[in-house]
Every structure is written in structure tokens, then in C-alpha cells.
Amino acid sequence: MSKIYLVYLFLLVILHMTNQNFAQSRFDHFPEHKLPQEMSPQSNSLDPSVKKFPKMVVFDLDYTLWPLHVHDLVAPFKKIGQKVMDAKGTLIKYYRGVPEILRYLKENKCLVAAASRTSEILHAKQILNLINLNQYFSNKEIYPGQKTTHFESLKKATGIEYKDMVFFDDEERNSHDVSPLGVTCIHVKKGMSHAVLQKGLKQWASKN
């Protein structure tokens, strides 16, 4: 085999190795090449360090699970594909992350309940069903009145003590009413989120 041919083969090998190293360096440099699970904005958004959970987590509805008042909507409601609207065309949707929050609680053996003061009882229940949240709720106390009444009914129906409940509501007056019962109450300022949930769970755990 001639020396020229051997030199030619040697140069081909060197060129191939150089191209491989260049491609790998480009792959490592740009984050978009990472695996989807590594880049997902939802990864570890629900704190895995939380090990202790209350027996029941209770949610208000309006401006807690969804950004609207049920009494402002006009029936009948309709579902077109994945979108739910009222008779005026108002889009009805939950805050981002709500289904994941409810599923997370159910997976960790928490009962999930609703406690709402709305006078539009039937409409609230219809919306929960239409936007596929109804499946997560074991108890629904939806009617006008002071929220202490709702919690008395929840305790009677489930046998769960107030100290084993966490309550999320956008109206501070409701928290002021319910807190003296021994329920851990969290003020929801801008709708439910993973951060708000973790705040509530950790505050409850610090007292139990």
C-alpha cells in the first residue's frame, strides 16, 4: 500500500473525528436539544419535599379556581371542542395548573371539596362538570351564606376535624370567618397556582 494512500486514509479519519466533536459541542451548547422532560416548565413545580398532607383541601370557586363570577354568566352554557362558553360567548376556563393541582391532591389521598357562596348553584355545578373538574371533588357545598355553615356541613359529612382542613379563598372575609374554627386558611390573591398550594400545605404542616 503506497504511502500517499495511507496519508489519505489518515486525513479522512482526522476529518471525521473533528466533525463529530464539532457536532457534539453544538449539541451541548444549545439548551433546546435537551430532553423534553428536562426543559418542561412544569417539572418539579409541585414541591416533592412536601410529605405531609391534610385530610381535606377546600376551594372557593369564583376567582379562586376560575377568573370570573358565576352570577355574571348567562345560561345556557355550551361546549365546542375543548372550549366552554356561556350564551353571550364568554369563555369559561380555569386558572392554569388547576387540574394538575387537584390531581396532585387526590394522588396524595386528600379529599377535595368546594365551598362557594354563589347563588347560582346549578350553574356552578354545571361549569365544574363542563370544564372537567367535577371528577376531583368528593364534596360540594355550594349555596349562599356564611362559609362557617359550609365547613360545618363538610365536617358532618366526612368526620374530618377542622384542624385537618386547608381552605383557599380569594376573599379575606371568608378566611376571617373560618379561621377561628381551626381551619388553615390561605388568601388567594391572583387565582390558584402551584406556589399558592405549596404555601398552604406547608403552613398547615407547620402547625400539625
Automatic annotation (TrEMBL):
Any Pfam family hit: Acid_PPase
Keywords: Signal
GO MF annotation: an example: acid phosphatase activity
Keyword Signal: yes
Signal peptide: 1-23
InterPro entries reported for this sequence: HAD-like_sf (IPR036412), HAD_sf (IPR023214), HAD_SF_ppase_IIIC (IPR010033), MDP-1_euk (IPR035679), MDP_1_eu_arc (IPR010036)
Keyword Plastid: no
PANTHER family, sorted: MAGNESIUM-DEPENDENT PHOSPHATASE 1 (PTHR17901:SF14), MAGNESIUM-DEPENDENT PHOSPHATASE 1 MDP1 (PTHR17901)
Designated name of the protein: Magnesium-dependent phosphatase 1-like isoform X3
Species the sequence originates in: Diaphorina citri (Asian citrus psyllid)
Gene from which the chain derives: LOC103515172
